[in-house]
Amino acid sequence: MVHSIVVHSKMFRVFYPPAVLHFNSTEHFLSSNLASPSRLGNHIFEFASLFGLSERLHRTPLFLVENEFHQKMLDETRKVMPGLVEKFTVINGSLPKSIKQTPFQKVCCRHENPEILEKIDEKYLHLTGMFYQSWKYFPNMREQLLDFLDDSSQDFGNLPRSNQRTHVTCVHARRGDFVDVGFQAADPDFIRNSVKYIAENFIPEIEYKKVHRKVVIFGDDLEFMRSLFENSVVSTDEPEYMFPAEYYISQNSPAEDLTYSKQNCDIVLISAPKSTFGWWIGYFSKGNKVFYRDIRYAKDRGYVSTHISKTAITIFKKTFFAQLCNFGPFLVQSLRLSIPGLRTNKRE
C-alpha cells in the first residue's frame, strides 16, 4: 500500500509503508530527512554528517529506506564508501507518525550547532534537515572517512601515478545541470589559467623539479574536457593509441575517482564552487592541498539572484560560501580569477 506521494524535482516519490521499529536495547537512534534524489556528493555529505552527529550525541545512526530514491542513495553510497554505510542500521519503511520530527539544519549548507540536540532524550531522534553540507558536522574525522573508501580497485586505466618522479595536479570540472540552472559551471579559461598559475606559483620547488608533471581532469562532460587541452589522453584509450602526454581525462567510476585522488592527487583544483563531488575529490586527496573558484567572483545565479531576499543573500555569503567552499580542515587557496588578471587569496 502506498503511504504517500509527493513531487520532488519533477519526479514522484512514492513513500513506503511506515517502518516497524522495535529494538530491545538501550540504544538511542538518530535519523533525518534526506535529499535522496540528489547526486553522490550530496549523499556522502549526508551520510558523513549524520555519522559525525551520531558520534557526538552517542547515538546509533539509522537509515530509513523510505522510497526508491532512498534505496538508490543507499546503493550508490555503499559502492563508494561501504565502511561508512556499515555504521548505519538500515530499516525498510518510512518514518512512523509516532516519531516526533525535531527541527534542525533549517537552511541548506548552513552549519547549526548540535549542542541544542544533546539534551534530547527520546529513543528515536529524527531531524528535519537535509544536505548537511558542512565539514563541521564531522570534524577531525578525515582519516576515518578515508578508511571508509572502497579502494579495492586499483585499475585507473591510463591515468598517471604520483610518485618520486611524477607530480599530479587534479582538476574537477562540473558542467551538467549547472549550465541549465545557472550555477557557476566549469569554465575553460578559468581552468587553463588556474592550472598554469598553480604550476608557476604553488608547486613546491622540490616537486616542480620532478621529471614528470601531469594534469588529470575529472568531470561529467567528456567533450568539454577534451576541449580544455590538446592531445589529452582518456583513461579508457587503448594502449596502441597512447603517446607521452601531459593531460589526462578520467572516465572511471566515482568510487575509482575518489580512490585515485586519495592515492595520487598532489594538488586539486575545483572549478565549479558548488560541486559537492569536487569537494570530496579535494577532501580525500593525497596532497591535502586544494584550490577552488571563489563563488563571490563567479557568475552564479544562486549567489547573485535578485529573487533571493537580502536575508537569504546574507546566508549564502556568510554560510554557504564559508561552509561548502571553505574546506576547513585542510589547506586551501581561493583563486579569484578574472581573465586576464589573476589574483589569489589564502584561506584556512
Describe this structure in words.
- GO terms for molecular function: galactoside 2-alpha-L-fucosyltransferase activity.
- This is L-Fucosyltransferase.
- It comes from Caenorhabditis elegans.
- Pfam families: Glyco_transf_11 (PF01531).
- Keywords: Glycosyltransferase, Transferase.
- The protein is of the alpha/beta class.
- It folds into two domains: 145 residues, no CATH class; 182 residues, 3-Layer(aba) Sandwich (Rossmann fold), CATH 3.40.50.
- It is built from twelve helices and 15 strands.
- Strands 10-11-9-8-12-13-14-15 form an eight-stranded mixed beta sheet, sandwiched between helices.
- Helix 1 packs across helix 2.
- The longest helix is centred in the N-terminal third of the chain and has 18 residues.
- It is elongated and about 60 Å long.
- The termini are far apart.
- The N terminus and C terminus are likely disordered.
Give the strand tally.
Answer: 15
Spatial strand sequence of the major β-sheet: 10-11-9-8-12-13-14-15
**What structural class results from the helix and strand content?**
alpha/beta
Shape: elongated
Number of helices: 12
Low-pLDDT residue spans: 1-12, 305-331, 336-348
Return the CATH class of the largest domain: Alpha Beta
Determine the mean pLDDT: 82
Major sheet description: 8 strands, mixed
Instruction: Give helix and strand order, one letter per element, not per position.
Output: EEEHEHHEEEHEHHHEHEEHEHEHHEE
Helix content range: 25-40%
